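FAQ: What does the model actually see?

It sees only this:
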Amino acid sequence: MKRLITVFLSAVLLLSVPLNTYAARVATEYVGADLETPLEENLQANAKVGEKLNINAKSAVLMEHNTGKVLYSSNADEKLAPASITKVMTLILVMEAIEEGKIKLDTKVTASEHAASLGGSQIWLEPGEVMTIDELLKATVIASANDATVALAEAVAGSEETFVELMNKKAQDLGLKNTNFINSYGLDAEGHYTTAYDIAVMSAELIRHKLIREYSTIKMDSLRGGESELVNTNKLIRYYDGCFGLKTGTTGKAGSCLTATAERNGLTLIAVVLGSPSSKERFSGAQKLLDYGFANYTFIDVKAETDEFTPLPVKKGTVKTVMPTAEDGLPLLLKKGEESGITQSYSFSENLTAPIKKGDVIGYVKVYLDEREVGVIPIKAAATVEKLTYFVCLGRLIKGLFTL
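And it is asked to produce this:
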């Protein structure tokens, strides 16, 4: 009798929750208790470069964003089902469409029968229901809603089929050799695959679009006037210092997947974990990768040492010298402690002859790490020097006569 009463009360409580709110809560990829559990501490936080990390996943990659250098990898090129990590490529194309003016955040989109028919994680769009691009982006990025993703794809390309063609074209443009998309949202499908390395490259491309951070860092939001609750499926943005995204994914074939992005002191890292047996394992795996990167690497922007620069002689110019400048920096990814091994030397072009335009390269600063050249910084002319011609001389002479 007690069990029957409990079941009855549970049913009453369930029916008392607005349909859209309940649907949005149960359709996402996470287990609520897991998202509310803080990250474990000291998960191989002191691992050294070259040390194997204990990551329970089919493949994993850690990439530095600015250089694209892989800092750690395990089965990085194994073709695997990516689940909703697929949406990283979808979002790249959506961001591009917004920046190109094809769509705007306030553009209204009417949900098609196809979009509304999607299963898996969703916000339960109704055919004919109208939402803005902004609302659909929230549903896609925060709650990984498949129906919202397809609505975005149709808004950009007219149909999901055409949009998927654009996804595969973009993959080719990015040089991804082990990626093929069958749909825009990530449910398992024959021939739908990618790799941890390719996902890292896609993620690096996506975060170049600053707008994505406005969505990937939202912890909670809602749609339909508060009726549909959205909870970010990425627990790292709650608990991991510097995390600003990016995407989770879970299906039966793919297992639990994650691409996570975090930034500290100018060092931006991308951690990809595919095929973990549980949500907890994917988050701990990504945490280990990020901890490893931040513990062992630093990103610096080397500036030229210009204190010793002096004006350089210029032949046949309207002025006799030009001042050199080296304002550009040289971004370098270094192992921690290597900063002290950075040295510089510089050289200038010989026999500078006018005309010289401001910004012309007139020399180079060579940057070394322990006597190994790691890059150059161009030295440029700080001002324009015109060529001294007969007419310039005549003009100066005439001007001088009138100023006597």
